Amino acid sequence: MAQSTTDHDTIRKWAEGKDGKPAAVDSTHSGDDVGIVRIMFPDAPNSEHDSLVEISWDEFFEEFEKRKLALIYEEDSMFSKIVSRDSV
Fold it and tell me: pLDDT band at residue 15, thresholds of 50, 70 and 90?
């Protein structure tokens, strides 16, 4: 069952527990603009990490808060989706 959270520690712990890393969509990431944030799983089969660039957790969470995002995730899988807090 999917859960949602905006808690930074929960997000980081969940992602790192599955070897996830903070990332931005490469085509939207330039200079001071982080762009669209994602969590990438480089070792996962069918991962589309070629279009992502790794960023720091600080950059990730700064953009996460600026855009008022939330993470929908499943505790026991790598399923996740970053959405607007208004849609949760």
Answer: very high
Beta strands across the sheet bearing 37-40: 37-40, 21-25, 52-54
Domain parsing of the chain, residue ranges: 3-87
Number of C-beta neighbours around residue 12 at 10 A: 16
Within its chain, how far is the Cα of 18 from the centroid? 12
What gap in Å lies between CA 85 and CA 41, rounded to an integer?
23
Decide if 2 contacts 72 (C-beta within 8 A). Answer: yes
Model pTM score: 0.87
Polymer length of the chain: 88
